[in-house]
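Onboarding guide, step 5: your first structure request.
Type a short instruction followed by the sequence, for example:

Predict the 3D structure of this protein.
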Amino acid sequence: MTRNNLEYLPSEEALKESFPDIIAVDVEANPNFDCSTLDQYKQIQILSNCGKDESELDNIIVDTVHTPTDDCDMQCQLDYHYRKLHEYVNKILKVLKEKFEEAQKHPVVKDVKNWFSEMFEKIKKMEFRSPIVIKDE
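The system replies with structure tokens like these:
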């Protein structure tokens, strides 16, 4: 829900009722979002700009490929566009990594990871025997 000029979210109960499996909501890039409402969310993690420095919120705009000029021919324009696109992809990867790391801290995610780890360990310890018996004739 980024860049939607949100000021607040529905209650946690309303969100869970509408989306039972929800564990996080991203409201970053909503400058008017009321950060004082974050304490109301105990089960759902809210990813926001609250408490972040303005320098962390910079955006990279990917320009379109411009018409070649005498100063910058088609190859020059493509090189420029590629550099800007590369910067943008790197920024997206960084943001996704940060969001993934932040989501990993959420108690629900930790519980699910622990459950899978425990199940995997139990499965590793199990002995499997084939139900098929081959008889020598």
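Each response can be followed by summary notes, for example: The radius of gyration is 25 Å.
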